[in-house]
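Allow me, if you will, to draw on your knowledge of protein folds for a short while. The matter concerns a single protein, recorded as an amino acid sequence and a row of backbone structure tokens. Could you please explain, in whatever detail you think fit, how the structure tokens follow from the sequence? I remain grateful for any guidance, and I place the record below:

…
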Amino acid sequence: QVQLVESGGGLVQPGGSLRLSCVVSGSIFSIGVMGWYRQAPGKQRELVATITNGGTTNYADSVKARFTISRDNGQNTVSLQMDSLKPEDTAAYYCTAGVQMYREFGFNQYWGQGTQVTVSS
């Protein structure tokens, strides 16, 4: 019913930039918090950044001042601008959103399939 599709991943050199985007589709009544998580092989999934429907942002300390999260409520999208990329940023990045469907009570959390970001050494 609700789908999240990420795009923009790829291979970049250290110090480079990349912009990830995520589009939410379905019978959407409203969208609450949206965010990005990442997971590298053999490591735990970690929060990268979140943004409320009012624009309040939250970042992991490891990406603060380098990454910027934004959203477009009219297009149901969330983006992650990544600058000054480091090899340790290499991971699969997942988009997530709390979505209330039409005539549904409350929100459910949905996830995208992920997009790979690789920063070469």
Observations:
- The longest strand covers residues 28-39.
